Amino acid sequence: MKDRMTSIDVNLLTSPSQSDAAIRVFQRKLYIRAKQDKGFKAYSLYGKLCEGNTLIEAFRRVRSNYSKGVGVDNQSFDAIEKQGISVFLGEIQQDLQGHTYRSQAVKQKLIPKEKEGDFRVLGIPTIRDRVVQMAVKMLIEPLWEADFEHTSFGFRPKRGAKDAIKQVKQNIYDRHQFVYDADLSKYFDTIPHTKLFILLKKRLVDHSILSLIHQWLTAPVRLPNGKLVASTKGSPQGGVISPLLSNIYLHAFDQIVNNPKGKFAKANIRIVRYADDFLLMGKWYFSKEILDYITSIMDNMGLTLNKEKTKLLHSSKSSLFFLGFEFRSIKSKFGWNAKNYTNVRPSMKSRSKLFSKLRELFANRKHWTIEWIVWKVNQLLRGWLNYFSISKVTHIWETIKIIKKHLDYKLFKWMKCKGRKAHRKLRQRPYENLVKFYNLFDIEKYARLKTLAKAQ
């Protein structure tokens, strides 16, 4: 096994093109093979996993794209870099090659939800486990990308929430206006391991890789009080590989819905799915037979529908909320024969979340300089607009005016609290003045440019 050992060249972390290109070439070859042969199964990926280039690229992606939170070993990225990245990755490589790698416990973190007393359970693996999970994800993802349905948008390369929103709007224009808005109860925590591995083995028969996945799924969970609890089902929401595993499991449901000879096709029902959030959209009212069929499928998969949040609606009679957007039917103001059209905008809930973040940003920040507050506000607004600006789909201008007015008021109060004479002129029109003199984000101009760029 030592003959195959690839040295860890940390220089590739600062100039990642070589390791990234090598991984992408391998992924492309694997994808083409899986796409051409529906019966293809990968059986020798473990050697590629142990290569230095694979581990270096995995570490780079985890460090740049994922949570910096520490796991049960309390090891941070700063500590790893102080120790030496080559030493850290070399130890992982040695453990993998000697088949002595063992996953560590998952640190549980409870994130409060809006509903009082309810929490979203987050599982945080150690950085060491996250790096190996990323390496495995990079290697096996092309196998299922060759199979995934076009109606699945969440946690996939070159796909995202914006594509899902566009598809929902297109379905409404195609008169699929009867909507079954589904909500799965604690999906990530309830995925049955046995059934998941049946699906994994349809494309993957490398026992060493399957053994690693089994370790991550069954790793004990350390509760906030320090107790260790065994994991018998689910995939930690916070693990790097969990989104891929969740997509693999719900891919079976996608196939049932999209089956041209199935019950859903006969009822002319389409699906739009983003991770565990999905909509079933039909031209006619959902019959009891179809509703019972959906429930039976979920029961067979070991999943539970949240009855409080799962609902039936008609998009022209009531608003549809999906992925932070609101779809509502509005009568056009133009023309003597005015018809209804679908208006898509950021939901009130999404807007309120933005305002809450702005409120937290300005709270007790009198000591901050204008330059620093402008930088923080710009960071927040840019991320929000990048998500909600969709060319030819969303109507965001009304929301932008509200945000500008709200931000103007917040800036005025913040400057007034600072109480400096130098700020009195700026306080007259704080938003406009900071845009002009301090490079504050001009959200209206940015949204317009972003819309034009996407339309071209």
Automatic annotation (TrEMBL):
Cross-referenced PROSITE patterns: RT_POL (PS50878)
Record flagged with keyword Nucleotidyltransferase: yes
Pfam family, one: GIIM
CDD domains membership: RT_G2_intron
One Gene Ontology term of the molecular function aspect: RNA-directed DNA polymerase activity
Domain called Reverse transcriptase: residue spans: 92-327
Keywords from the UniProt entry: Nucleotidyltransferase, RNA-directed DNA polymerase, Transferase
InterPro entries, per database record: DNA/RNA_pol_sf, Group_II_RT_mat, GrpII_Intron_Splice-Mob/Def, Mat_intron_G2, RT_dom
Family from the record: Belongs to the bacterial reverse transcriptase family.
This protein's name: Group II retron-type reverse transcriptase
Organism: Psychroflexus torquis (strain ATCC 700755 / CIP 106069 / ACAM 623)
